[in-house]
Each structure stands twice: as structure tokens, then as C-alpha cells.
Amino acid sequence: MTDIRVAVLGAAGRMGTQTCAAVEAADGLELVARVEAGDDVAQALRDARADVAVDFTVPAVTEANVHAALDAGAHVVVGTTGWDDASRGRVAEHLERLDADQGARLGVLIAPNFGLSAVLAMTFAAKAARYFESAEVVELHHPDKVDAPSGTARHTAAAIARARADAGLGPMPDATDSGWEARGADVDGVRVHAVRLRGLVAHEEILFGNAGEQLVIRQDSFDRASFMPGVILAVREVVRRPGLTVGLENVLDLS
Ligand SMILES: NC(=O)C1=CN([C@@H]2O[C@H](COP(=O)(O)OP(=O)(O)OC[C@H]3O[C@@H](n4cnc5c(N)ncnc54)[C@H](OP(=O)(O)O)[C@@H]3O)[C@@H](O)[C@H]2O)C=CC1
Ligand SMILES: O=C(O)C1=N[C@H](C(=O)O)C[C@H](O)C1
């Protein structure tokens, strides 16, 4: 079998650097391009004949990078944050259009978090959500992170909200008036709090409460090495998964 040719977008960044090293060390993968800010993404991918582009850039450019990669005929693995229903919808349409017009069976895998502890924490939280009156999410990160709340926290809160709605649960008890910033962001009715602290990498706590009891689910990524097995798995999977996949839980068969 021939190697999967991988290009890394955002190659000089914190995640990009580790991803390049992980791809170089992985059996059956070949690192063929390191793409950085200012490069023409589509041209770089065509020149390198990349099969898969891995995007660890910034929220402002990640969607444009994915469209450029698809136009260059590459599958895409996305770790960058900043996605919403509208941007994911445009990528799904792009994939369908390519398939219909050119028979291109390309895949895009967007994962808010590649760490196993985070994926499991999100899965467990979604399962627990229906059994508790209250739920809140606290994410804690290094202070160089440019967005808040984290993509992982948004994904977690959205899954909790879906599980609550499916179970017929209404709004959570909360007597605070509107407009209190200290209550955090409202993600589909679930409060999300963001801590930025030197020394941290990426951490999340999901708190559930009932009268007289509490459940806390916590995960810690102490090192970006924790994301690499998931990134490599995603690269191997995306080439045989046409269409849009959101969340590594689908690849791990946890959904
Ligand atoms: N899914 C997951 O498991 C994880 C996701 N992330 C997410 O990944 C993203 C990157 O995080 P991190 O590595 O810490 O951030 P960094 O800021 O360290 O890296 C981002 C890199 O992208 C580069 N860049 C900016 N614009 C472009 C462009 N148009 N084309 C190519 N490269 C570009 C930047 O270059 P320059 O500095 O020159 O602008 C920089 O080198 C964030 O959204 C973060 O939340 C992070 C960890 C895990
Ligand atoms: O910026 C980071 O560092 C991280 N970003 C992702 C997110 O926003 O969820 C994943 C992880 O939390 C690390």
C-alpha cells in the first residue's frame, strides 16, 4: 500500500509543529508539505500532491483553508476551532457538489478535540446529562489561546443540550437576572466558563447537580502529545470516510 501524503497547515504553530513530527514518525504516512501563513494553500497542496491536509491554524482562516484543500482534491482533517452550523453546512455542500460534478469522494473530519480523555469526557457528559437538573461546563486553558469558550466546551455543551432536549428537560434552575457576565457564555442554554492561566495546557470540567448530589467529569491534557494519536487516527480514517464527520467520537465508535 502506498503512503498517505500529508500536508500540515499551520505547520509552525504549537499544534502544527507536533503534528509534523507525529506524521513523520507514523507508519504509512508521509509529510509532504508544511504550509504556513501567507502561503497559497491550494497551490501548496497541488504542488505536494497531498492526499490529506491537516489544519491547525486560526479560526479566522480555517474554513477558507478547507474549501481550498477540497478544490485541490485533498481530504481534510480539521482541529482548528471556530466552526458553527453555517460553516459546517457550507463544507457539507462543497463536498456534495464535488461528488456530483466530479465524482470526487472526499472526506472532511472536524474534531474539536483529538485527546482521548476529552472525547471520553464529552461522551460520558452526554450520557449523564438527562439525569441531572443542572449542568455547567468549565474549560481551562493556556493564556495564549485566542478564542473562548473552547471548541471542546462548545461541543460538550451542545451535546448536553441535545440530550436534555431529547429527555424533555426544560431550562435549568437559575435565579440570576440576565446580563451578569460572571455566569459565563450561554451555549444552547448551557453555561460555559473559560479560565486562562499560565502553566495550563487544555482541561475541562463538566459539573452536574441534583438535590443533594453532584457529578464532576474532568479531563486534563497536560501535554499536546495527548492529541497526536487522535490526529494520526483521523488522517488514516478520513481517506475512507467520504462526506463530513464532526467529532472523533464517530471514528472511535463512541457516538
Ligand atoms: N482539535 C484539537 O484537539 C486541538 C485544537 N486546537 C486548536 O488548533 C488551533 C491552533 O492552535 P495552536 O497550534 O495552539 O495555535 P498557534 O497560534 O500556535 O498556531 C497557529 C498557526 O497557524 C498559522 N496560520 C495562521 N494563518 C494561517 C494560514 N492562513 N495558513 C496557514 N497557517 C496559518 C499561524 O502563523 P502565524 O503565527 O504566522 O500567524 C500559526 O503558526 C486553535 O484553533 C486551537 O484551538 C489546539 C489543540 C488541540
Ligand atoms: O487552543 C487550544 O489549546 C485547544 N483548543 C481546542 C479547543 O478550543 O477546544 C482543543 C483543546 O482544548 C486545546
UniProtKB/TrEMBL annotation:
Query: Which positions does UniProt annotate for NAD(+) binding?
Result: G10, A11, A12, G13, R14, M15, G79, T80, T81, A111, P112, N113, F114
Record localization: Cytoplasm
User: Which EC class is the enzyme in?
Assistant: oxidoreductase
Keyword NADP in record: yes
Q: Where are the transmembrane segments?
A: none
Which sites bind (S)-2,3,4,5-tetrahydrodipicolinate? H142, G151, T152
Known InterPro entries for this protein? DapB_C, DapB_N, DapB_N_CS, DHDPR_bac, NAD(P)-bd_dom_sf
Q: Which UniProt keywords apply?
A: Amino-acid biosynthesis, Cytoplasm, Diaminopimelate biosynthesis, Lysine biosynthesis, NAD, NADP, Oxidoreductase
Enumerate the spans annotated as Dihydrodipicolinate reductase C-terminal domain.
118-252
The GO molecular function terms of this record are: 4-hydroxy-tetrahydrodipicolinate reductase; NAD binding; NADP binding; oxidoreductase activity, acting on CH or CH2 groups, NAD or NADP as acceptor
Could you say which residues bind NADP(+) here?
A: R34
Enzyme Commission number(s): 1.17.1.8
GO CC term (a single one): cytosol
Q: Where is the Dihydrodipicolinate reductase N-terminal domain?
A: 4-114
- Catalyses which reaction? (S)-2,3,4,5-tetrahydrodipicolinate + NAD(+) + H2O = (2S,4S)-4-hydroxy-2,3,4,5-tetrahydrodipicolinate + NADH + H(+); (S)-2,3,4,5-tetrahydrodipicolinate + NADP(+) + H2O = (2S,4S)-4-hydroxy-2,3,4,5-tetrahydrodipicolinate + NADPH + H(+)
Pathway connected to this protein = Amino-acid biosynthesis; L-lysine biosynthesis via DAP pathway; (S)-tetrahydrodipicolinate from L-aspartate: step 4/4
So where's the catalytic machinery, residue-wise?
A: H141, K145
Q: What does this protein do?
A: Catalyzes the conversion of 4-hydroxy-tetrahydrodipicolinate (HTPA) to tetrahydrodipicolinate.
What family is it from?
A: Belongs to the DapB family.
How is this protein named in the record? 4-hydroxy-tetrahydrodipicolinate reductase
Native organism is Isoptericola variabilis (strain 225)
Q: Which gene encodes it?
A: dapB
